[in-house]
Amino acid sequence: MMALRELSSLGKCLGVKKPNKYSTQGDKKVPVLHNNNGPALVGLVTIATHLALVQQWLEYRLTKVAGCHKDDIKTILKDLNSYLEDKVNLAGNQFTLADTLMYYGIHHIIVDLAVQEKEKHMNVTRWFDHVQHHLPPVVVLRNRVYTRGHH
User: Fold this and answer.
1) How many C-beta atoms lie closer than 10 Å to residue 72's C-beta?
2) E strands within 21-65?
3) Res 59: pLDDT
4) Is the per-residue pLDDT at 98 higher than 90?
5) What domains are defined for the chain?
6) What is the 3-state secondary structure (H, E, C) of 72-119?
């Protein structure tokens, strides 16, 4: 039970919202993190490491990517490309909030890249395409703004 309290405290510290569910497994009450989009994570250290990694990428997104100068774009793409070389998502194999926010953070950069630049940053391009197809479509309602009497 102590491990569950520690995880709960860690989650609060890192700003993790309620979609994550904790439980225990086995006689020794090993903590388990259940999330909505992947296998459960088992063990206090495994869960803490995962949450810290997500937090790290959220910080990177806010401090390095948001409002970056044109000179910084090459460094950001190089860093991401290198990191994603052997990973599906930013936190390993699980899709997280970090992937969603990073996607929207670099969207304007990726769409403006020439084909040669996209090929140069192949891992970022692969990850971007994966995230793009993982996110739900944006629904745009086509309602009239004005009624007939207000032409």
Assistant:
1) 12
2) 21-25, 30-34, 41-42
3) 95
4) yes
5) 2-134 (1.20.1050.10)
6) HHHHHHHHHHHHHHHCCECEECECCHHHHHHHHHHHHHHHCCCHHHHH
